[in-house]
Amino acid sequence: MTVGRRGLLAGGALAAAGMLAGRGSGEAAPSGPVVREETKSLDQLHREAKAEGGTLVVYAGGDTATQQDGNKAAFEKTFPGITVKMVVDYSKFHDARLDTQLATGTLVPDVVQLQTLQDFPRWKAEGALLPYKPAGFSRIHPAFKDSDGAWTGIFVDAFSIIHNTGQTGSAPPTTAADLLDPRWKGRIVSTFPNDDDAVLFLYKLIVDRYGWDWLARFVAQDVAWVRGTQEPADRVEAGTAAVALGTDGALVPGAGTNTRFVVPATDPFMAWAQRAAILKGAKHPAAAKLYLNWWLSEQTQSDFYMWPVRTDVAPPQGYRPIWEYRNANFAGFERFMGDRRLVEAFRQQLTLYVGEVHGAPSPGWLGLHPGR
Question: How far apart are CA 324 and CA 327, in angstroms?
């Protein structure tokens, strides 16, 4: 099992009901012909992708160059003859990179999959995305897809507290208030929340609940601040930190795994569906379609280490579908990401407490056209 990392498979391979049932926040009106759900089999799509040339370029949001290697390997094993160039970088760099490529006519990726939810309605309105509905599209929760097929969620990720069982014993912290206990001083690691908007939203939820005094007291716990969400998970698993705030973990940990992910009973946490889309100018559209169909297949959805986006695929035993957790705040995250004035105002307020982001970005500096 690949443990606790966004976008890696665990196995082989709320707002008002009216909003969830209708069009997503900021979604543009239909502007073209009706798109029908894919009816071709994966085998047929595989043949078409090989005939096209057998190459796929994906820009994936993430924290380290190797973070998507599990997905790449699973996809290439399932579909021999297809090679994926998987380029991982922070979503906030990938979206700027894509905008630059679109503006200069130098498009590289076939598929983008990012946490910057606010970009997809804009790219749709700009005509940059290829409308497409993979097989299983009708089974995706309405809040996790564009009804015209411009983009779709492919997996649900969530950020909360994780802890090392050997370090925290029988009484691990399960709420933000618990993190203020003196016994965790010097033993907490966190992603810089002012460096990652998903982590920033988690901190906003906590500050909204507990107040700015919570943040002042949390910072006084001698928190280790790092870039990216991979390193906090790695430190907790290794036992060099007892607790992390602002990263994810497998709902069902593998044998021998030290990390546990906390789904709070009432405390806020945050979740979202990572959005993926095919670019209208993609050089490998057949391979891109195969990739989205693979992600949304029942097998891949079942293998993912957190929650599926499909309503007909059950989450791991002991868990409810993510849309039944009102404290997961996934509709709130979409609204937050769309309100850039609010995002930047809160980022600057929070920076006064945690300090400026420092250190090289964990995926490295990739430039304008990685994967070309």
Answer: 9
